[in-house]
Specification:
single chain, about 300 residues, Aldehyde Oxidoreductase, domain 3, TIM Barrel, 2 domains, six-stranded parallel β-sheet, four-stranded antiparallel β-sheet, 11 helices, about 40% helix
């Protein structure tokens, strides 16, 4: 489970964005001392993610508020499932609930889509990974959501691994192609520590042949069709020495991922896990106030 403490500045900023100078409606209607009990409810089938942020957000406004977790991140949700119960000052709960829902619904949507991709390749020896196509400022949270859904993370930042792509070749050499990509691999490998992974993206079999026996950890097969993926797998499996992992990438969907996995690639990276996941429906419902309203 994620620790919300390092993310408190982000959460406070998100809450301030929603509150502005204050919740005018709640201040007009709800006494400052009124307490409430409210339930976070699932409204659709999916995978939960982001629950620790619920208590963190409400406690910004009410340090004495508490949240009971009835399930934990990674749990499967269903319509009507009670996820958590909030106890605290009514103004604080009302003021923070939309921000909390925005965070939890977004992260749960990513976890849910990730779980669907993982389920689509169940039984096959392949890993589903995300990419760096994340919302600015949300990367660590969104990649946590991917893990809650059972998929795995690609590099978190540019310094986690070296990854050679077409634009690197164009800016470094003014050209692409097998010779350029092989030279790029040699230069990058010489410049990075041996423990840093080196990935290289190739777009055809000539480029694959140019790098497959170099000191490369992952070869990313960008936009290869199924026959091309099978050929690449056969080439790499025939190598007499240490072989790189093969990763299929580029426009992969739930409709195509199973067939791609069946070609024998080791990994499949899917940008849609973070950039296109729809939010999962959840809601907050208040029970009767703990303190009865005046007659």
């Amino acid at each position: 489970m994620i620790d919300p403490a390092p993310h408190l500045p982000f959460l406070a900023m998100a809450l301030e964005e929603d509150l502005g100078s204050g919740d005018r409606t709640t201040r007009a209607l709800v006494p400052e001392t009124r307490k409430t009990t409210a339930d976070l409810l699932g409204r659709a089938d999916g995978v939960l993610c982001g629950l620790p942020f619920l208590e963190a957000l409400v406690r910004i406004l009410d340090p004495d508020a508490t949240v009971e977790h009835h399930v934990e991140d990674g749990a499967r949700l269903a319509d009507g499932m009670r996820v958590a119960t909030i106890h605290g000052r009514a103004r604080a709960v009302l003021g923070s609930e939309r921000t909390a829902l925005n965070v939890i619904r977004h992260l749960s949507g990513i976890a849910t889509l990730s779980a669907r991709f993982v389920e689509a390749v169940r039984g096959l020896p392949v890993k589903i990974l995300d990419t760096r196509k994340t919302t600015p400022g949300w990367r660590e949270l969104e990649k946590y959501a991917v893990r809650c859904g059972g998929a795995e993370n690609h590099r978190l930042r540019l310094d986690d691994a070296a990854m050679i792509k077409e634009n690197h070749l164009i800016t470094a050499f003014g050209r692409t192609g097998p010779a350029a990509i092989a030279e790029a691999v040699r230069r990058v490998r010489a410049a990075i520590p041996p423990e840093v992974p080196l990935c290289v993206e190739v777009e055809d079999h000539d480029e694959l042949s140019a790098v497959v026996e170099e000191r490369v950890d992952v070869v990313m097969l960008d936009g290869f069709d199924l026959d091309g993926l099978r050929r690449a797998v056969a080439v790499v499996r025939a190598l007499p020495k240490r072989r790189p992992l093969l990763e299929a990438t580029g426009g992969i969907t739930l409709d195509t991922v199973r067939a791609i996995a069946e070609t024998g690639v080791d990994r499949i990276s899917v940008g849609a896990l973070t950039h296109s996941a729809p939010a999962l429906d959840l809601s907050v419902r208040h029970r009767l106030a703990v303190e009865a309203p005046p007659a």
